[in-house]
Q: What sequence folds into this?
């Protein structure tokens, strides 16, 4: 009997005590993370998932589950911009319980996700998959390389075989790196001092809520981040940002239990020339490095390194118990990768991104 695929039902205040479908969804994510990455410290808890999938005025989130009766045996997670001009959906996750693989559950999930995206007016679907550290040492007869960059994944990797068999092409590889930060505040401070003055730029930092006077130009920088970052052969689309979206993002992060740290470079005219964001997961020793960008007109002043050091110092002052920072960078983004290597980031995993030609 084939799996039934449908959207995960979110619990409400009137629901009985857990476990709910969302509890099972979170548990399967955690198990898949341990299998693929060797850790569950990046797995989102149920409370965060509930807020993630709640009504978002700017971005749709559709969690899908494959069920055998009442048992969740596979998951997929779709996202897309609500902008009427958007034509691309992103399958940020697709996974099947280990004991139910090679039974077409993944193919059924993908076909359903493709239909949901198409029905929503998003005919282009982009897939992502994680490849743990074992790919760095496991020999392979054939390797896959994205159109840009030097990283490779084994052609016989299960996620690669799955994507290729369904007509998707490898469009980009992202390097996932990790930085150990415990007890390094003095080092970060010394390195920041060695950079000297940042004239004519000023660096401002904040926790959770951006200053009112930076909102509009911060929104511009967020918008540029959506299309200026290296994208390989993937059709990433422009995200429209304004001050209201910045504030909504802040509110949603707090509702999910996240603490958000931002360092921004401010140009002489008072506008944001670049920024970097750290997101602290609830109940985890881990921190996620989110967007980092220096706008084109302001590059060449070592602002990327300065901003990261400022935010790492802010992290030490905000929550010194955090142990590690994870970051994701396009393999072809040599400049940002060089900054990360200089800071001491080490290889952790790869993320492959696929799109049907």
A:
């Amino acid at each position: 009997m084939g799996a039934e695929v449908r959207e995960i039902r979110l619990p409400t205040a009137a629901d009985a005590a857990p476990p709910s479908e969302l509890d099972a969804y979170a548990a399967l994510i955690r198990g898949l993370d341990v299998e693929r990455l060797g850790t569950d410290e990046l797995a989102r808890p149920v409370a965060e998932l509930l807020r993630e999938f709640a009504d978002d005025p700017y971005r749709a989130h559709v969690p899908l589950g494959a069920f055998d009766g009442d048992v969740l045996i596979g998951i997929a997670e779709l996202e897309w911009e609500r902008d009427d001009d958007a034509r691309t959906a992103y399958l940020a996750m697709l996974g099947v319980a280990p004991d139910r693989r090679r039974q077409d559950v993944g193919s059924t999930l993908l076909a359903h996700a493709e239909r949901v995206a198409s029905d929503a007016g998003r005919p282009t679907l982009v897939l992502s998959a994680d490849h743990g550290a074992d790919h760095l040492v496991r020999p392979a007869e054939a390797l896959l390389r994205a159109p840009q960059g030097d990283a490779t994944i084994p052609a016989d990797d299960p996620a690669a075989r799955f994507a290729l068999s369904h007509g998707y092409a490898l469009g980009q590889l992202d390097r996932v790196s990790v930085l150990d930060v415990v007890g390094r505040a003095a080092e970060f401070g010394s390195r920041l001092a060695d950079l000297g003055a940042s004239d004519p730029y000023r660096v401002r930092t904040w926790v959770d809520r951006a200053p009112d006077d930076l909102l509009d130009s911060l929104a511009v920088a967020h918008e540029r981040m959506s299309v200026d970052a290296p994208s390989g052969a993937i059709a990433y689309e422009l995200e429209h940002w304004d001050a209201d979206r910045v504030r909504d993002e802040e509110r949603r992060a707090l509702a999910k239990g996240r603490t958000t740290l931002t360092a921004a470079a401010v140009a002489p005219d008072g506008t944001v020339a670049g920024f970097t964001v750290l997101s602290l997961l609830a109940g985890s020793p881990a921190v996620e490095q989110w967007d980092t960008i220096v706008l084109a007109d302001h590059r060449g002043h070592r602002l990327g390194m300065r901003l990261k050091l400022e935010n790492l110092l802010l992290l030490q002052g905000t929550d010194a118990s955090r142990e590690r920072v994870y970051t994701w960078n396009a393999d072809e983004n040599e400049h940002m990768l060089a900054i990360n290597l200089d800071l001491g980031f080490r290889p952790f995993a790869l993320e492959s991104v696929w799109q049907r030609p």
Notes: The chain is about 30% helix and 30% strand. The first strand starts at residue 4 and ends at 7. The mean pLDDT is 94.
